[in-house]
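# step 3/5: fold
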Amino acid sequence: MMSKTAYLGPTGTFCETALQQLDSHSAHVPFPTIGAALQAARNGEVDAAVIPLENSVEGAIVSTLDELAWGEPLIITAETFLPVEFSLLVRPGSRPDEIKRVISHPAAHAQCRGFIVREFPGAVLVTAPSTAAAAQEVAEIGAPHDAAIAAPIAARRYGLAEVASRIGDRADTVTRFVRVGRPGVPPGRTGADRTSLIVFLREDRPGALAWALTEFSLRGINLTRVESRPTGDGIGNYFFHLDCAGHISEARMGEAVSALHRNSTDVRFLGSYPCAEGSLARTQPGASEEDFREASSWLARIRGTSALSRGEHEPLRLSLRRRPACLRPGR
């Protein structure tokens, strides 16, 4: 049976394009909101979901961060970076001077803020669940909205006219999309991986976040994103989304995540998966897997020697070649 993948719909969204890059062989099922797409993955209605996570201009998609933090756990298994271009779409025959209400997703409004202020300073901005949903609404007969900010493909999908193209304030805007599914074994380590976590610190105290970040710094792990979100339990209470360079199978990552788990209210593992842009950072001296294996073996030898003094193990044999000079016979 063909697998199913949910995405933020309707058809014609950037999310659908990202899904085609990540999983072109599954059946694509649109959902009206990010929450609905993720819930479909949680309850088994679909096998996975593709959703936007962050944008190079506006930063994190907060609805995604919040949806991943609560409810049944999901893990990220893949990501892709998608260049984003926006167009202004209207019903055929409409004139620019008739545009009074512009509808789109909040992130699209924010990324086209300069264009709107410059060209339509008096326009009312209306929000929609997605850019394609905005185009769909404008296309409806008798719609109260005059124009939509959406992907160029939405014009063809919904029979709209493109009156302005590439209206984003930044020409190099990129959005990061992720594929998520129910918990399972993470994809294998590639050497160019990212690990994502959600951390609920045990208490609000001076230096609590600095302590958490230090667990990564001490082990040479690069943090590529840190986002705070309110827990909803009052002003000043936050949880944190972290993206780290590395894989959970690595000793250094395992040590850091274990330390967080011991000293936090909760740590939600969001997955280890290949980075879309390749290697994130060069490993610092002393922080490679070989370095951690050697240190672990060294510690095991020390523990074995200590156990020997208590009569728990066979003698630990050290070669004369490796003995310090002061311990060699005749000294």
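# step 4/5: annotate
The longest strand covers residues 264-274.
# step 5/5: archive (pending)
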